[in-house]
Each structure stands twice: as C-alpha cells, then as structure tokens.
Write a structure and sequence with these properties.
Elements lengths: L1 H35 L5 H10 L1 H29 L4 H21 L1 H10 L10 H28 L1 H11 L4 H23 L3 H4 L2 H4 L1 H17 L8
Helix pairs in contact: 1-3, 1-11, 2-3, 2-6, 3-4, 4-6, 4-7, 5-6, 6-8, 7-8, 8-11
Length: 233
C-alpha cells in the first residue's frame, strides 16, 4: 500500500510541475508573440515592444520559469515510470534535458532586443530603421533557436509516450498521442527548414495537435486522476 501511495504522490507532483510548464509555455510562446510581434513589419513590432515592454519582460521571465519547471519534470517522471522500462526512462530524461540549456542560451536574443529598444542615447550608433531591423533579426534568431529546442521537445515525447502506453497505470491513448506528437514536432522542424513559407501553408498547427492534446491530457490526468494501482498478478 505504501508503494501505491508513493506513486500517487509522484503522479500529482509530476502533474503539478507539468501544469507549470504548460501555463508558462502558453504565455511566453503563444500569448506574448500574438500581442507584440507582427511578421514582416519591423516598425509595428518595434513600437509594440516599446509600448508594452513590461509584457515583453514578463514573457522572458515566464519562458525561463517554464524551462526551469521542465528541468525537474522528466526527473519526477523518471521515478514514476522507471519500473516500466528503465532504459526508455533514461532516454526520456536525456532528450528532455538537452532542450533546457539550448533555450537558456537562446533567450540572449530577447535580452538583446531589450537593449536595442532601450538604446535611447543611441550608444549603438544606429538609425531608427536599423534599430527596427536589428530587433527583427534577433527575434528571428530567437524563433530559429526555438525550432532547435523543439527538436528535443519532440524527441522526448516518444519514450514518454511508450512508457505511458506500456505502464498500465495511465490511459494508452495518451501514450499514442505523445508518440504521434514526437513526429509532429519533427515534421514541423523539417518543414520550416526546407520550405521558406511553410508557416503560410497552415498545416503546422494541425500537425502539432496530437502533441498538444497528449501533453495537456497527460498533465491533467496526472494532476487530477493520479495513477491506477496495478493489481497483483
């Protein structure tokens, strides 16, 4: 009975951390860009960031918080799912953790944007148009860096999905969605890399849907339902 209680507690802790990842990720990766960034319009983007600098700063902080949560999430999941298959559990941790330092380094692009926006004394010696162009350049570099991060955001989902599918204590359909989500991330990465106007095709959001449903579903299941106790054989 003690082991079952321990697993339920681990599941709830994992669900709580996962919820932190989901909420902060939605804010920094979806809400902030939708409010501030206008593709192919440096002037409007620059003005949006200048007038809503606090929101941009909150986006940076929540992004760092998101990947701090993500640093601990696979470690808790490892303890929970290691009995299913230890090697897959180790692979899950390695692939997940590889994305964290890449993200933290990539955030430097956002700090550079802040420096450009706050260059009121023109210490960089740039014209207004050059400031705007540099801001867009570093935002594009940040976006490219996130695509590299998302390689590992996808790869870790396959061993996680396999472990969920085989666990017997979590719904198998969540495991299937997570494994499909791995391929969705990779397809979108290849698409953005090989096709210059891939985002205009409008299929990337559909391809990433299994990952979104699988991750949010797993998060809520762990947080609300916990894990089922396996019957002794």
């Amino acid at each position: 009975m003690a082991a079952a209680v321990s697993n339920k507690k681990l599941a709830r802790i994992a669900g709580l951390i996962y919820l932190g990842v989901v909420l902060t990720g939605i804010f920094t990766l979806m809400y902030v860009p939708s409010k501030l960034f206008v593709s192919d319009n440096p002037s409007v983007t620059y003005q949006n960031i200048s007038s809503s600098e606090t929101l941009f700063r909150f986006g940076i902080v929540t992004g760092l918080l998101c990947y701090t949560f993500f640093l601990f999430l696979p470690l808790v999941l490892y303890k929970l799912l290691k009995p299913v298959h230890e090697n897959y559990a180790k692979l899950m941790v390695v692939l997940a953790l590889m994305s964290v330092p890449i993200f933290f380094l990539n955030v430097q692009n956002e700090f550079t944007v802040l420096s450009l926006v706050n260059d009121t004394k023109n210490l960089f010696g740039l014209s207004a148009e050059q400031h705007q162009s540099q801001v867009m350049l570093h935002l594009d570099q940040y976006k490219n860096g996130m695509r590299i991060v998302h390689i590992f955001s996808g790869l870790w989902l396959f061993p996680l999905g396999y472990l969920v599918f085989q666990s017997g204590v979590l719904p198998k359909f969540l495991g299937v969605l997570l494994m499909l989500g791995c391929f969705g991330y990779l397809i979108n990465f290849v698409g953005h890399t090989l096709i210059s106007d891939y985002s205009k095709i409008g299929i990337s959001s559909y391809i990433s849907l299994p990952a979104s449903i699988g991750e949010i579903g797993t998060c809520l299941w762990l947080l609300i339902m916990g894990v089922k106790e396996k019957k002794p054989t």
